[in-house]
Input
Amino acid sequence: MRKVDYLILGAGPAGLTIANLIKNNKPEASFIVLEKESEAGGLCRSTDVDGSPFDIAGGHFLDVRRPKVNEFLFGFMPEEEWNVYDRDSRIDMKTYEIGHPFEANIWQMPQEEQVEYIKSIAVAGCNLGQPKPEGFVEWITWKLGEKIAKEYMLPYNGKMFGGELDKLGTYWLDKLPNVSFDDTLLSCLNKKPYGTQPGHARFYYPKKYGYGELWLRMGKALGDALVCNATVDTIDVNEKVITCEDGSSYAAGTIITTIPWTCFKEIKSCDETIKASISRLKHTGTEIKYVPEDLDTAAHWIYVPAADVSYHRILVRHNFCEGSKGYWVETNMNRVEKDDTSIKFDNEYTYPLNTIDKPAVMAALLPYMRSHGIIGLGRWGEHEHYNSDRTVERAMELAEEIL
Output
């Protein structure tokens, strides 16, 4: 059994960041990173398809809004190796496209449809001061108005999260601004967006590589401390011992887990209530499929709410990845259509689901594990839908705390 000060599970953005921060800021500490895949990167890994980079879990981008995060990452992949783009994302309404976010771009619709959407927003519950509902479906209608909910948000989320929307909570949606009747009316009259712009309004993407190149370099910086092809099997909470499928085992002063809690085949020496609650954490998986034809659009990605189309999002590779062609489509695993001819990649774990009872599960799980020297970090360790830049920021915050 190997013994280290820090044992990090998973070499995605969270694990790679905390490992490099330990290496750089506490050189006397011993650490190991265990990764089940053959290379680092997690959901941000890339490969080569048709002569160009392909991000195997869909489009990942580096937001410009976190300068401290970017400064840290540019230490591995300098800024001059990135292009900067002004986000162009759109929504496919079948007969036409409009910009995203929906409510800021209703002015791009035919005029008679603009009127119907404006009328719907005017009587949205949030604009009438009605009490906030608890159910997801009712909340979306209360927040956005019945027409946006029916034509876009509910069908899109149903496709992305695999249906059963009423199992989702609403606590994670409070960050969304109210759809302002005044802003919507002004945007239609003046034919330009009003209101809050979404995340990734400006973003970086590598000039010559897929997004995975950044994380490969971060993994390489760890040298022999990164152990790939190591699938975690069991964890002993009291002993802080990890056993892998190949029989190897590791003990640590502190374990930092960035992998899904449901990945552990066995959790030993754990409170039975805590152990049982882990099974209530839900997630979705996705298939990312390559389509070789170029699209006649300037968009970087396109949201597709139509129920009769299996995929929910298009990433237009040739508009942000220099010298490439074609596009990728992202489909919830429950909606995948059988196709043996396309180039595609399956991801069992893509999105943590914000189910109604998730906050209670995590509020008990994370402190309990911390009290035993086991820290959950990142998208899967915290079961939060973090983008990669936010995940890196969370790892930097943890490093400040524990180092």
